[in-house]
Amino acid sequence: MARVLVGVKRVIDYAVKIRVKPDKSGVVTEGVKHSMNPFDEIAVEEAVKMKEKKLAAEVVAVSCGPSQAQETLRTALAMGADRAIHVEVSGAEYETLQPIHVSKILAKLAQDEKADIVILGKQAIDDDSNQTAQMVAGVLDWPQATYASKVEKKDGELHVTREIDGGLENIKVKLPAVLSADLRLNEPRYATLPNIMKAKKKPLKKVTAKDLGVDLAPRIQIISVEEPPVRQAGSIVGDVDTLVSKLKESGHV
Amino acid sequence: MRKATSNVLHSVTQRHWPLKIRTAKYSTPPLSKDTYKIKRGNFASLTDKDINVFEGIVGKTRMLTDVSDVEAYNVDWLHSVRGSSQCVLKPKTTEEVSAILKHCNERRLAVCPQGGNTGLAGGSNPVFDEVVISTSLMNKIISFDSLSGVLTCQAGCVLEQLESYLLEQGFLMPLDLGAKGSCQIGGNVSTNAGGLRLVRYGSLHGTVLGIEAVLANGEVINCLNKMKKDNTGYHLKHLFIGSEGTLGLVTQVAIHCPVSPKSLNVAFLGLDSYEKVLEALKSSKKDLGEILSSCELMDRTSIQAVEENLKLRVPIKDCPFYMLIETSGSNSDHDEEKLSQFLENALEKNIIVDGIQASEPSRIKQLFEVRERMAEALLLDGFLYTYDVSLKPQDFYSIVPTTREHLKNVPGVMRVTGFGHFGDGNIHLNITSKEYSKEIMNNIEPFVYEWTSKFGGSVSAEHGIGLKKTGAVHFCKPPQAIQLMHQIKNVMDPNGIMNPYKVLPAINSA
Ligand SMILES: Cc1cc2nc3c(=O)[nH]c(=O)nc-3n(C[C@H](O)[C@H](O)[C@H](O)COP(=O)(O)OP(=O)(O)OC[C@H]3O[C@@H](n4cnc5c(N)ncnc54)[C@H](O)[C@@H]3O)c2cc1C
């Protein structure tokens, strides 16, 4: 039976208002609530479901990041992953960590752990890169099924429904393969208290990128991070005639 | 991009906050005067002359006289009462309110003050042709002092609007309720609304520091004190808090707001018996003490309504009881540790069988949504008979099975459920049916009131008396107290024009 590797990223919670640091070097993360990237929750859920359906034997969760990434891994364990690997990346290195680095790390771990399926979220809601799954497949030279909204295992192959522009696409991939989870793939479960207690006893291993032989040298330099432009206030006009003349004035009609 | 993604998440989880939606499936309720057999008081009827005077005060655009425009003001949120007002006025200032009331008083035209129209006791709608004075356009925030935490605003500010304004400044409204997207601070004050945070911040009698109100004769009573302490004479503001528009129209409010907590944690728990619920209450008070800010109870039947009618997901396994516990404090490590300890103990001792804990705003919102949208979910059954009683913790839940048993053979009853502000001993008993049934009603009342008063409870813990419960006041107040209420009413509103037929039993014959 297959072993599934899932990637989970710790991101600023989506209900938090994002603030840019005064020096424009990034966004404020200190004292800000974080949670698991929502698409990664979907990835974990899918992996756990595979295990429940006896399509997978083991689910291994991986997170790259500072020590708090372990909280995210504990959540994945409470959701049903069997063990976790924390790839410690912190400080300045974490600020310039990009999908290219993460995909190399994940590819190496997929090989080391003899994974048959890698499932990632289609994108992280902080940098919205949408590149990691594709690059993991590239590094490993495995088939990829991205934006999955349905996954079934038949005759040793995965039948995947993909969300594409204008509709759905059905494809088959041979194992080993890389998947990326789209929004409609499933509804992830919550980590319940009894399961959080149990998760405390599950193994969590710590490694560094160096251990895995991945070079984290920055490939980008952050020049400036800006707030989105503020929407201009509107004004209320008395009647249709004034509206039309105002629109004419501003050259809109 | 981030925003776009979260929008997707929002739409997929079907989150529509704030509460503003109204499905069209409800039928028009019968006229309240028929349902409650009320005789019209000795008031004048609206004439074109009055309309001209009103137009002179608020102008054409802030006066509604078209039947279809006025309709929404005649019917309540529950679709249970209906009046036949022909005129809605929307003043913007205290002076306009004063001019309107002065005219109405001289002409003996009855009026009905209305805020967000989310009241659950039928107090916010006319019974006959009362002129509706809507505070919706009195929505200016006047000042906020970040040192004292005192917010001063007009009565028509929507609670959620105040909440977001304060959040920006690092403060919080001392009250929170499911209707926050529509209800107004003037309505909250006039009903002395309780809600989800009362257990922590106390009632509006404590947090409201000052009130400006207009009496029936148009006189402006400025008691807009902003000091925490003020013992100069009778505490008149308290007369306006909870008097549901029968003593005057509240135009401005000064309210003391707490600093918003740096750390917020929520636990959603499943319990398998009421004894366990009592144990959980005891240990939450002991272990969480000063950081406990909400303690709500919901039964399985209430949860089912939310799951079935709103398709919301309840993230833990099916249990007879659920509790929602919120902590707020200034140090997240400290609070989380306390809460975790409490939860671990509760799990170990089998007080709770399942549960989840959240500190992420997105999760907290999802969990609260289950509780806050419960009334809306029940209303989607068709018709909702809702009772709001306070009882001692030991007796708190028994009213639900007792009522269920009592209604066992009454045709048409869909659900009998209970949920409420457990930490404050305030339960909402709810009965639903496809449509209004007189037989069901006659079986609930006065049964529920009698039962409550037998156990020393209050027949209206936070929703007020309004139109629907005037006949129940005597279960909780002796004749001498009711007499004194009448005398106060007569002094403040000698012509009885302010929200007649409400609050006091037979107010016009007194
Ligand atoms: C989903 C839902 C959840 C709720 N949860 C709670 C809860 O947890 N706790 C609670 O206590 N209540 C609750 N309520 C009841 C209701 O929302 C509150 O009583 C609320 O405070 C009413 O505010 P409003 O602006 O809608 O007032 P309205 O409904 O418009 O009016 C209520 C009463 O106050 C009078 N009034 C309104 N404005 C003024 C004014 N400026 N001057 C004088 N009189 C005025 C009206 O005449 C009427 O008698 C809930 C209601 C709903 C629909």
Automatic annotation (TrEMBL), chain A:
Domain Electron transfer flavoprotein alpha/beta-subunit N-terminal intervals: 24-216
Cross-referenced CDD domains: ETF_beta (cd01714)
Family membership noted in the UniProt record: Belongs to the ETF beta-subunit/FixA family.
One GO cellular component term: mitochondrial matrix
UniProt keyword terms in alphabetical order: Electron transport, Mitochondrion, Transport
Native source organism of the sequence: Thrips palmi (Melon thrips)
Biological processes, Gene Ontology terms: amino acid catabolic process; fatty acid beta-oxidation using acyl-CoA dehydrogenase
Keyword hit for Mitochondrion: yes
Gene3D superfamilies: HUPs
SUPFAM superfamilies in UniProt: Adenine nucleotide alpha hydrolases-like (SSF52402)
Protein name: Electron transfer flavoprotein subunit beta
GO MF assignments: electron transfer activity
Statement: the UniProt record of this protein carries the keyword Transport: yes
Functional note: The electron transfer flavoprotein serves as a specific electron acceptor for several dehydrogenases, including five acyl-CoA dehydrogenases, glutaryl-CoA and sarcosine dehydrogenase. It transfers the electrons to the main mitochondrial respiratory chain via ETF-ubiquinone oxidoreductase (ETF dehydrogenase).
Classification via InterPro entries: ET-Flavoprotein_bsu_CS, ETF_a/b_N, ETF_b, ETF_beta_N, Rossmann-like_a/b/a_fold
Subcellular location(s) per record: Mitochondrion matrix
Complex and partners: Heterodimer of an alpha and a beta subunit. Heterodimer composed of ETFA and ETFB. Identified in a complex that contains ETFA, ETFB and ETFRF1. Interacts with ACADM.
Domain of life: Eukaryota
Primary subcellular site in the record, as a coarse category: mitochondrion
Automatic annotation (TrEMBL), chain B:
Alphabetized PROSITE patterns for the sequence: FAD_PCMH (PS51387)
Lineage: Eukaryota, Metazoa, Ecdysozoa, Arthropoda, Hexapoda
Pfam families linked to this entry: FAD-oxidase_C, FAD_binding_4
Cofactor(s) this protein requires: FAD
Keyword terms, alphabetized: FAD, Flavoprotein, Oxidoreductase, Peroxisome
Domain of life, source organism: Eukaryota
Record-linked InterPro entries: FAD-bd_oxidored_4_C, FAD-bd_PCMH, FAD-bd_PCMH-like_sf, FAD-bd_PCMH_sub1, FAD-bd_PCMH_sub2, FAD-linked_Oxase-like_C, FAD-oxidored/transferase_4, Oxid_FAD_bind_N
Task performed by this protein: Catalyzes the oxidation of D-2-hydroxyglutarate (D-2-HG) to alpha-ketoglutarate. Also catalyzes the oxidation of other D-2-hydroxyacids, such as D-malate (D-MAL) and D-lactate (D-LAC). Exhibits high activities towards D-2-HG and D-MAL but a very weak activity towards D-LAC.
Gene Ontology CC: mitochondrion; peroxisome
Catalytic activity: (R)-malate + A = oxaloacetate + AH2
Subunit (UniProt): Homodimer.
Name under which the protein is recorded: D-2-hydroxyglutarate dehydrogenase, mitochondrial
GO molecular function: (R)-2-hydroxyglutarate dehydrogenase activity; FAD binding
